[in-house]
């Protein structure tokens, strides 16, 4: 598991195990869901960083094995573990050391190459650029 920590929200504890992320019930330890490496029907995904839970989503950085050396930020449904979206963060061999930061409007992710990414919903865009109200 490395240096990854735990996150607790809504009676579930989220943590990285065997390069995937799991959600277990706080009271019983029963596994509710698992996403990542060794999950049937999914590509082998390495997730090795502390998950961040905000609202109804779990944010965890990682990469897809045998795909590229590009890091991704995976966004999962906090109750089901279903992948909501995935954002590519460019060539980043140490993506697992990044822990995203989540505000009410944006999600921030940093890479080992010094890049800082900010993601959010965009109501209006022109030429692929978001217009801020």
User: Rounded to an integer, what's the Rg over CA atoms?
Assistant: 15 Å
| Largest beta-sheet details | 5 strands, antiparallel
Q: What is the helix tally?
A: 0
User: What is the structural class?
Assistant: mainly beta
The overall pLDDT, averaged over residues, is 81
Looking at the structure, what is the overall shape?
Answer: globular
How much β-strand is present in the residues? over 45%
Total count of strands: 14
Low-pLDDT runs: none
Topology at a glance:
Layout: E1 6-9, E2 12-17, E3 20-25, E4 31-36, E5 45-47, E6 52-54, E7 57-64, E8 70-77, E9 83-91, E10 101-102, E11 107-110, E12 116-119, E13 125-126, E14 129-130
Antiparallel strand pairs: 1-2, 2-3, 3-4, 5-7, 6-7, 7-8, 8-9, 10-11, 11-12, 13-14
Explain this structure to me?
0% of the residues lie in helices and 50% in strands. It is mainly β and 133 residues long. The strands form four sheets. Strands 5, 6, 7, 8 and 9 form a five-stranded antiparallel β-sheet that branches. A four-stranded antiparallel β-sheet has the order 1-2-3-4, with no helix packed on it. The protein has a three-stranded antiparallel β-sheet with strand order 10-11-12, with no helix packed on it. Strand 11 and strand 12 (116-119) form a beta hairpin. It is globular, with a radius of gyration of 15 Å. The mean pLDDT is 81.
Task: Write a concise synopsis of the structure shown.
With 133 residues, this protein is mainly beta. The protein has no helices and 14 strands.
Key traits:
133 residues; mainly beta; five-stranded antiparallel beta sheet; 14 strands; 0% helix
